[in-house]
C-alpha cells in the first residue's frame, strides 16, 4: 500500500510537469508567431504608406494653379493671358476649373454683372479649345482676378 501513494504522487508530478512544459512550449511558439506577424504587418504597412505617399506626390504634380488679372472694368483678359490660357488648356487633357473673383464695381450688383460677363466671354473663348471647363464664382479671390486650376 505504500507503493500506491508513491505512484500516485509520481504520476501527479509527472502530469503537472508535463502540462507545464507543454504550456510553456506552446506559449513560446505563440510569442514567436506573434513577433513574426508583427514583422510582416510592419512591412505591409510600410509598403502601403509608400504607395499612399507616391499617390499624394503624383496628385500634387498633377494639379497646377495659374492666376490671371483683368484690367479695371474690362470683361476680357489681355492678349498675352489669353494665349497662356489657350496653351494650358490645349496641352493638358485633364479637367480644368476656372475660379472667377468679383470685379471692382460701384455696388454688389455691378460687381456681379461684370463677373458674369467675364465668365460668359471666357466660356465662349475656351469653348473653341475644350468643352470640359468648369467656371465657378469665387468671392474669396482677389478682385479682378481668375484662378485657373488644372487637374482637380
Would you give an account of this structure?
The structure is a single chain. Helix content is 61%, strand content 14%. It is of the alpha+beta class. The chain has a four-stranded mixed beta sheet with strand order 1-4-2-3. The longest helix has 60 residues, at 3-62. The protein has two domains: 1-62; 64-150, 60s Ribosomal Protein L30, Chain: A. The chain starts with a helix and ends with a strand. It has three helices and four strands, in the order H-E-H-E-H-E-E. The protein has helices spanning 3-62, 79-91, 108-127; strands at 64-69, 96-100, 133-137, 145-150.
Summarize the structure.
The protein is α+β, with helices and mostly antiparallel strands. 61% of the residues lie in helices and 14% in strands.
Summarize the topology.
Elements: H1 3-62, E1 64-69, H2 79-91, E2 96-100, H3 108-127, E3 133-137, E4 145-150
Parallel strand pairs: 2-3
Antiparallel strand pairs: 1-4, 2-4
Labels describing this entry:
3 helices, 60s Ribosomal Protein L30, Chain: A, alpha+beta, 4-stranded mixed beta sheet
Shape: rod-shaped
Architecture of the largest domain in CATH?
Answer: 2-Layer Sandwich
Question: Radius of gyration, Cα only, in angstroms?
Answer: 36 Å
Percentage of helical residues?
Answer: 55-70%
Tell me what portion of residues adopts beta-strand conformation: 5-15%
**CATH topology call of the largest domain:** 60s Ribosomal Protein L30, Chain: A
- CATH homologous superfamily title of the largest domain: OmpA-like domain
Mean pLDDT level? 77
CATH class of the largest domain: Alpha Beta
Amino acid at each position: 500500500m505504500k507503493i500506491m501513494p508513491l505512484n500516485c504522487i509520481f504520476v501527479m508530478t509527472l502530469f503537472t510537469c508535463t502540462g507545464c512544459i507543454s504550456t510553456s512550449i506552446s506559449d513560446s511558439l505563440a510569442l514567436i508567431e506573434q513577433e513574426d506577424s508583427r514583422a510582416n504587418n510592419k512591412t505591409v504597412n510600410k509598403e502601403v504608406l509608400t504607395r499612399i505617399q507616391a499617390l499624394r506626390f503624383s496628385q500634387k504634380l498633377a494639379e497646377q494653379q495659374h492666376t490671371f488679372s483683368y484690367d479695371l472694368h474690362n470683361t476680357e483678359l489681355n492678349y498675352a493671358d489669353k494665349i497662356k490660357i489657350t496653351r494650358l488648356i490645349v496641352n493638358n487633357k485633364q479637367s480644368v476649373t476656372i475660379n472667377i473673383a468679383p470685379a471692382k464695381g460701384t455696388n454688389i450688383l455691378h460687381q456681379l454683372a461684370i463677373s458674369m460677363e467675364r465668365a460668359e466671354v471666357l466660356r465662349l473663348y475656351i469653348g473653341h479649345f475644350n468643352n470640359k471647363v468648369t467656371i465657378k464664382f469665387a468671392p474669396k479671390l482677389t478682385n479682378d482676378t481668375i484662378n485657373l486650376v488644372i487637374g482637380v
